[in-house]
């Protein structure tokens, strides 16, 4: 029953149109404002079970991801948010990445919930005590593997609450990239000593159709959007993000959101995963090259985030 209410109260429902109506008119930045700018870009990868909470707790895609990862990450810094339970199995690669300047952050222990239950996932609520145990277990895995104490966190499904932020603060985390941007962009903010770096999201919504119902949808800068959008749509979207940042006095930056399983053909039957393919390495590179032709990109890790 709770799920039905959550679904009906989702701000993306069409009857909340009045809340979003102004955003439909949001404009792109004038290009002369960004021409000679240096843009910080944060590539982030959730290094996790195939298909996250929609999968079967398998990690069949990871080997392939690692094998090809130099195609992008050989010369571009990134942050890998790793599930605590996968650290031991992939510790050699994780250490290699850490030693070459990438950051290893934490993505929960077993892809569980770090906030309230949600209508779109089946994961059960975790108490504060359960979350504390999961954090301790994860930190032990990092230590055993010889990795640095992680300082950056991303909650699975971008679901967080203040209980989890309090715990992260106690366990000396300094950055979080879990803010929910599904209902529109969120500005960077702080919680205690934690800097919150939301994934970039287009401030102008679109109407999309889901199961024959209209839904207000904001394009997040995740791999699906990057690989499927035309160069022109992508560029307009980027320029709206920068306009939004300029209007709010935020330094120009982009936070890109990917998953380890998005770079191989899907092994489960799900129409929404059709874009997952080894071609995405090339498609992502094309878009990054395109951006690099427009301004100077400065690749950073989340623990270098400032806005
Ligand atoms: Zn995830």
Distance between the termini: 40 Å
CATH architecture: Alpha-Beta Barrel
Largest sheet properties: 5 strands, parallel
Give the count of helical stretches: 10
Radius of gyration: 19 Å
Determine and state the CATH class: Alpha Beta
Annotated CATH homologous superfamily: Glycoside hydrolase/deacetylase
Features:
TIM Barrel, 5-stranded parallel β-sheet, binds zinc ion, 31% helix, 307 residues, 11 strands, 4-stranded mixed β-sheet, globular, 10 helices, alpha/beta
Description:
This protein has about 300 residues and is an alpha/beta fold. It is built from ten helices and eleven strands. It has a single domain, classed as TIM Barrel. Helices cover about 30% and strands about 15% of the residues. The strands form three sheets. Strands 1, 2, 3, 10 and 11 form a five-stranded parallel sheet that branches. It has a four-stranded mixed sheet with strand order 4-5-7-6, with helices on one face. It is globular, with a radius of gyration of 19 Å. The site of zinc ion has 6 residues, from loops.
């Amino acid at each position: 029953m709770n799920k039905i209410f959550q679904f009906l109260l989702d701000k993306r429902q069409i009857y909340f149109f009045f809340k979003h109506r102004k955003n439909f008119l949001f404009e792109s930045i004038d290009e002369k404002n960004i021409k000679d700018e240096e843009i910080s870009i944060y590539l982030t990868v959730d290094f996790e079970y195939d298909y996250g909470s929609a999968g079967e707790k398998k990690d069949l895609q990871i080997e392939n991801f690692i094998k090809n990862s130099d195609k992008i990450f050989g010369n571009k810094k990134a942050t890998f948010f790793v599930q605590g339970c996968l650290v031991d199995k992939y510790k050699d690669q994780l250490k290699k990445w850490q030693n070459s300047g990438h950051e290893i952050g934490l993505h929960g222990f077993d892809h569980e919930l770090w906030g309230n239950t949600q209508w779109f996932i089946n994961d059960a609520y975790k108490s504060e005590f359960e979350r504390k145990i999961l954090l301790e277990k994860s930190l032990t895995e990092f230590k055993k593997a010889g990795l640095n104490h992680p300082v950056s966190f991303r909650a699975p499904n971008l679901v967080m609450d203040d209980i989890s932020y309090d715990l992260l603060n106690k366990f000396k985390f300094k950055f979080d990239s879990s803010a929910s941007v599904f209902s529109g962009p969120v500005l960077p903010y702080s919680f205690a000593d934690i800097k919150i770096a939301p994934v970039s999201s287009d401030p102008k919504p679109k109407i999309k159709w889901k199961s024959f119902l209209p839904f207000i949808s904001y394009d997040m800068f995740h791999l699906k959007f990057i690989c499927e959008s035309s160069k022109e749509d992508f560029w307009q979207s980027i320029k709206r993000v920068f306009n939004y940042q300029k209007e709010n006095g935020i330094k120009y930056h982009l936070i890109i959101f990917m998953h380890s399983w998005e770079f191989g053909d899907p092994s489960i039957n799900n129409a929404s995963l059709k874009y997952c393919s080894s071609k995405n390495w090339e498609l992502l590179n094309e878009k990054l090259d395109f951006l690099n032709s427009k301004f100077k990109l400065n690749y950073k890790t989340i623990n270098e985030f400032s806005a």
